[in-house]
Design brief:
The structure holds two protein chains of two kinds. Chain A is mainly alpha-helical. Chain A is about 70% helix and about 5% strand. Chain A has a two-stranded antiparallel ribbon with strand order 1-2. In chain A, helix 2 (about 20-35) crosses helix 3 (about 35-50). Chain B is globular, with a radius of gyration of 18 Å. The model of chain B is unreliable at about 90-110 (pLDDT under 50). Helix content of chain B is about 70%, strand content about 0%. Classes of the chains: A mainly alpha, B mainly alpha.
Amino acid sequence: MNDRCRHYEIEITRWLDEDLSSQEVDALKSHLGNCPSCQRQAERLKELRRDWTFPAPLISTATDRESILEAALQQQTRTVSESNPLFTRLKQLIEKPFFLNAATVCGIIAIVLVSIDLQRQVSTATIPADWSNSVPVYSRTEYESTVTGKKSSVQTDIELPMTR
Amino acid sequence: VTDTELMQKTGAGDMEAFGILIERHHLRVLNLAFRLTGDAELARDIAQDCFLKLHRAADRYRPSGRFIAYLGSITRNLALDAFRQQSRHRPADLNHIDYYQQSGIALTGQSPETPERLHERRQREEQLMTALAELPEDQRSAFVLSEIEGLSYSEIAVVCDCPEGTIASRKHNALRKLQKLLQSEGDCR
């Protein structure tokens, strides 16, 4: 087989695939008319292609198609959510271990503060609102005279808040 | 409705349009993947990935040729990726005789056939599939896309990202090899 025949062998394949221009077809036909070897090859290829069949060996099932559609739906939902910048920022933040630790610490602090506040509210709830006005302020001498019924000769400036 | 219109609707978020695209092309993509890989399970995975990729790219899709060529391009690239990931996987290692016994695999053909003719046809198909698996990947792609999918050389050139002359040469080499393989199988019987 010479180079010319090698060239025309590929041309035969292209001819069978209808990929040649009319000029190229004319040139090929002229070569085939003069070259029994290429003519035989053309006939063999034609015969080979006539013989084979190409069925679709795999069946496309409804389950296959539905699962693709479902996966695409999930993909779309994900894409829409991720296109929101706030969502993306939050997601990035949440994915960081630092954020989780900080969130836990903040949570504990919040619980402690709330419990302290509750405790304070409970303790102040038993005392009347005008507590500071209702409690008389005695000086030490007044207190002693109140307790003993006698007036003290020593005056002090110390004042003690006392409950009755 | 054309495929391009369906792609535009899909890009705008219309899942019904995407469902129609799946209904229309799933069988073709599935069998193209199967012929490129020779593996039924892998072909199903590739078909799914192909449509998910299509869905992701729908809003950027610009028609520049036949839609099936575009799908063929995605499918072939995914098949190549699968080959790279599973380097141990060789289509030629598979027992093609078992394909028709596997789940979800059946012969097409509407006309009633005698059992003898059906058997003969199955044998021819199995021979061809086995011979096809012997081809190098580039020749197999050129053959499958041209002979089975009916793409033109220029379309295959786009899919395979190489000149048309190379495709013609690959197809020619594939035909010669298949001719030899089928001839030798015929002699063995």
